[in-house]
Automatic annotation (TrEMBL), chains A, B:
InterPro entries: ATPase_BadF (IPR002731), ATPase_NBD (IPR043129), Euk-type_GlcNAc_Kinase (IPR052519). It comes from the Bacteria. This is ATPase. Residues 13-268 form the ATPase BadF/BadG/BcrA/BcrD type domain. Pfam families: BcrAD_BadFG (PF01869). It comes from Streptomyces adustus.
Length: 335, 335
């Protein structure tokens, strides 16, 4: 296959708290290769830093084009955590930068919740609960996006990993203090993981990744629930209820919406999934629970394929999904 | 009054999150003068930094001795936030430093909860709830100290200012999202104070004083409760219940203990005090609720007076209350 005859490639990017992932795909052949960096894109005074994103992305894309032989990029979709509130600089600069570096004609920027949605359900109506350290619910009737929660570990993310872990540690400390609501099993587990409980504040508060430290105790809560600990079971029951509340706030109220779960938190399995299934059936009886098709990067790939073929029908609102004005420039000047 | 005839002075210090206060007192005349700094003592890798404390304290004490004419210090009591878990360097170095600089013979270091207790109830059995941004309950039967909560805004401080403000902001965001448990009145109040709610995470998370930012919304919750908002009333009711639970965990179970409240949070008044009075009466029917006599600095002064006259009968355990071994050294060599 010559350079000129190579398929128009697609660039899909997923930028989040744990780093940057990039995939090179082809409309008719799916993902050809991918690369990952574990350095999260910096957030500065102007919000998410487009320069730092490009700094990481350029060598990845050079390596991907070399590996795959794909020379032309027809479309690029970048899913980024924090796009809606911290994405001004990204919206202003990233599309031009992608066009300049890689000759991409069509660029879309999406909130990571949108790529999570499309990765899980594709372009169909419904609601997706995305849960890891944090938690957000996103839904669409295909005319607009709705989101609920996703406010971070101090203001919400109710039912997410940091929320569950924090509740478990509070219960451990209640047992330590002799206050009601404590669990001796959670206390013992917390001591096994973090050392003597009086030293826990000194270990937690100085860290920059406090939410991740809290979330690291969520599996401990799941294990205690599995052993029948009533406090741990209550915590996971409350997490499931709050997740379902968030899903209900964004799911279309009519039609035949589908609901899917995505994100690492659901690897916790039955102690969380069983109560969640019941809560969702109660709060959204008209919605069908389905397994997620794929992850957020898969969502970016799907959106890039639709963008390249002018088939992207998802609602774009400038913040959750931003379609950059088309450019006709190519670095090789042959278009 | 000559220098030699001056009364043996007492040095009382209160070191906390909002700075350092020092008072010079006399056993028979009470507080003579005081000074304050708004620079909190640094916490470094070795815990609370004794050098930084002395750096601030020395000029204060020089000014106080000049102002009062008190030349000899018979006893010093330093109440410090974080002493139990972050006080190793303070215990190792501060007593010698105080002796060297000021010729103090008797030195005690106390957790700020202990000075808050003594300031509120004096050396008598009972329980004190100290609440500002954080919350801790401390109690004693005069044979040992017991403490409950005080674990900070991520792990507990249940019912404190940051806890109440955080719950209010979560309710505001629930209303914004259309999730259950929201309050439109709290939403409007939060928007009036912080601007559009989607910008709140960007304003809160980058700050170092996140707990204080959360606590700054506690008066907003109180105002909404005063207007009859049911969600705000529930938040303050839950705060009162948790405070009473912490008090019950530390209060002597027999005898005639007294209970007092201390700290800025209680300026909130009736919306918090009325439910708290009821909760305390239910959970601790044998305890008498009394007004706090004074603040933590007052507690340090009382303890210094008792220490100077060998009348300090409070339980010392090395962490909550540490009595330094006596020194016979005087900088003037005339003892």
């Amino acid at each position: 296959m010559t350079d000129r005859g190579a398929p128009a490639g697609l660039l899909a990017v997923d930028s989040g708290g744990s780093g940057l992932r990039a995939a090179l795909a082809a409309v008719d052949r799916g993902v050809l290769a991918q690369r990952a960096s574990t350095v999260p894109v910096r957030t500065g005074p102007r919000g998410i830093d487009p320069g730092h994103l490009m700094e990481q992305l350029v060598p990845m894309v050079r390596a991907l084009t070399a590996e795959t032989g794909v020379r032309e990029l027809g479309a690029a979709v970048v899913g980024a955590a924090g796009l809606s509130t911290l994405g001004d600089a990204l919206r202003a600069e990233l599309p031009d930068a992608l066009t300049r570096e890689f000759g991409v004609a069509k660029v879309a920027l999406a909130a990571d919740a949108v790529t999570a949605y499309v990765g899980a359900l594709g372009p169909s109506p419904g609601a997706v609960i995305a849960a890891g350290t944090g938690l957000i619910a996103i839904g669409t009737d295909l005319t607009r996006w709705r989101r609920a929660d996703g406010w971070g570990h101090l203001l919400g993310d109710c039912g997410g990993g940091a929320w569950i872990g924090r509740a478990g540690l509070e219960a451990a400390l209640r047992a330590h203090d002799g206050r009601p609501g404590g669990s001796a099993r959670l206390r013992d587990r917390a001591e096994a993981e973090f050392g003597p409980l009086p030293t826990l504040p000194g270990r937690l508060y100085p860290r920059a990744d406090r939410a991740a430290v809290l979330a690291s105790f969520a599996p401990g809560v799941a294990d205690c629930a599995h052993l029948g600990d009533p406090v741990a079971l209550d915590i996971l029951g409350a997490a499931a209820r709050q997740m379902a509340e968030s899903a209900a706030a964004v799911c279309p109220v009519s039609g035949e919406p589908r609901i899917a779960l995505t994100g690492g938190l659901f690897r916790m399995g039955d102690p969380l999934l069983l109560p969640l299934e019941i809560e969702l059936a109660q709060k959204l009886p008209h919605a069908q629970q389905v397994p997620a098709e794929g992850d957020p990067l898969h969502g970016s790939v799907r959106m890039a394929a639709d963008l390249a073929t002018d088939a992207l029908t998802l609602p774009s609102d400038g913040t959750m999904l931003y379609l950059a004005p088309k450019k006709g420039i190519s670095p090789t000047g042959d278009e």
